[in-house]
Each structure stands twice: as C-alpha cells, then as structure tokens.
Amino acid sequence: QLSTNFYSSSCPKLFSTVKSTVQSAISKEARMGASLLRLFFHDCFVNGCDGSILLDDTSNFIGEKNAVPNKNSARGFDVVDNIKSAVEKACPGVVSCADILAVASRDSVAILGGPSWNVKLGRRDARTASQAAANNSIPPPTSNLNQLISRFNNLGLSTRDMVALAGSHTIGQARCTSFRARIYNETNIDSSFANTRRSNCPRTSGSGDNNLAPLDIQTPTKFENNYYKNLLQNRGLLHSDQQLFNGGSTDSIVRTYSNSESTFNSDFAAAMIKMGDISPLTGSNGEVRKNCRKVN
Ligand code: HEM
Ligand SMILES: [Ca+2]
Question: Could you say which ligand is closest to the alpha carbon of residue 222?
C-alpha cells in the first residue's frame, strides 16, 4: 500500500526539503543522524511506523517518550519539528510525521556515508501511543541472541534483517548505564577496550549513568561496516551487540558483513524498507498530524 511516489504530485519538494533540514542538523552535530535513525526504529517497533513516538505526554495522555528505552535517551524531536515546519510550509497538511521519520532516516544514513534507497511513503499518523508496548517491543541491551531474534521475528523481520539493522550501531552513542554491566562483568570483551570504556563509566550505578561512549569505537559518525569488524574483535559496546558474534548462529552473517561492505549496504537498505513496512496506517486510518507532538 505504501509507494515511493505517494507525494509526487501533492508535495514535489518533500525530498529536497527534508534533506536540507537534515543536512543542516547533521552539520551542527553529526550525532543527530544517529538519533533520527533510532527514532524511526523506536517508532516502527511500537504498533508500526505511525509517528507514535513523537507524541508528547500531557496531563491526560501517556505517550512513549518516557518508556524505558526512550527516557533520557531518545533525542532529535526538535529536529523533527524543524523538518515538519519546513515541509508544512511547502505543502500544508499533506505529509505525515511517520513518513518524515522514514525519509529523515534514509537521508541521515546517506549523509553519513551509508547506502541510500527509495523510501516507501503513504503512512498516516496515529492518534494514540502506547508506553507499555514501547517497553515490551523494543529490545533492551541486556537481550541475548534468542531474545533479539524473536523480537524482530515477531514483527516479520528475519534474523538476517536483525543483524543488518543492528549495523546502525556503526553510528551514535550510548549511555554508561546501557553498557556498565558488560564492561565490568563480561568475559567476551577485549580487555583494553573494556579498560578504555571503564575510564568514563564508573562501576557504581548512580554515578556517571549518562556519560556517553561511541557504539563504534572507530568511526562513530561514519556509516560503514566497522560495527561488524569491532564485533570480530570482541569490541561490541552493548551486551546485545556482542551477542551477534559469540559463537552462535549469526556469527557467519557478521563475518559476511565485516568482509563485504557492499553486501551490508544492500542488506541494510532492504531491511530498512522492510522495517518501514511494519503495519502502517493508510487510507482513512489515522490522520496527517499538523504538529508531530500532538494529535490534531
Ligand atoms: C538489535 C537490537 C537493538 C538493541 C538492543 C539496541 C539498543 C540500543 C541502546 C541501548 C542504545 C543506547 C541508548 C542509550 O544508552 O541512551 C542504542 C543506540 C542506538 N541505536 Fe540501537 N538497538 C538495537 C537495534 C537498533 C536498530 C535496529 C537501529 C536502527 C535501525 C538502532 C539504532 C541506534 C542508533 C543510531 C543509536 C545511537 C543513537 C544516538 O546516538 O542518539 N538500534 N541502541
Ligand atoms: Ca562507523
């Protein structure tokens, strides 16, 4: 039901408008490309790609921003607002916030050096959100391989899709609280890497919880296959990252992607399109929000 030409007559300037706003945000802060990509993932995994993550909490509405995986972590909402304003100026009331996330993610990956792809469009925005579904659907960094596989399989994404999409951790940052247990307690970690990470992530919880470290120690603002090369050296930052190369069924996929950037790029693009297809609202379901933070 989604199509690449959905807005070609109703908003011909959509792609140029989104790209220039994303470009200027990334020029100010390269990490923003990672943050926008993650918003799309956290949107799609919770009742489909419907812009639900963008809704603000109010006194009588509990949204997803304070769900465990998002609180003190999901960011870039101000940039989404800027993109939406620019798009509204060009074509008022036409383009959904869910579609803006899909296009902004594609542009972020491409601007940081990764693959590009044709984004399918025509999603509409939810009038609801679910904090409980966000807590239950987005995998935590403590997940083991079977748990990762099943969270993705539940949404129609294969194990190979999961390994390709996790390659997103070639960009962006994580908080100490997300990787503390790994760097202090695990044995399948390179010891000099663990020491480096310990220097800015104190052992005691409660201190330094929000200190940041790059998910890819080599090139945190370049999108390529270094994530997989790190895994081969036991330099995955999150417990869940290293699960993909820990003697299990996905080792061979990690090896393939570490050896072939082009295979990774094409699998990643295909998996992003597949993730973007997760239960969209179409036709007269949902709405095209005026302001991504609140229902019309
Ligand atoms: C495979 C299961 C996954 C787990 C367990 C996971 C978990 C995490 C965690 C814990 C963080 C750091 C959050 C923080 O400490 O504040 C993170 C960051 C990030 N994740 Fe994932 N993630 C997964 C898959 C994905 C996927 C599929 C994508 C995109 C398609 C993605 C994109 C990102 C990006 C880009 C960042 C950095 C964001 C930033 O710097 O603002 N992740 N992830
Ligand atoms: Ca990288």
Answer: 2
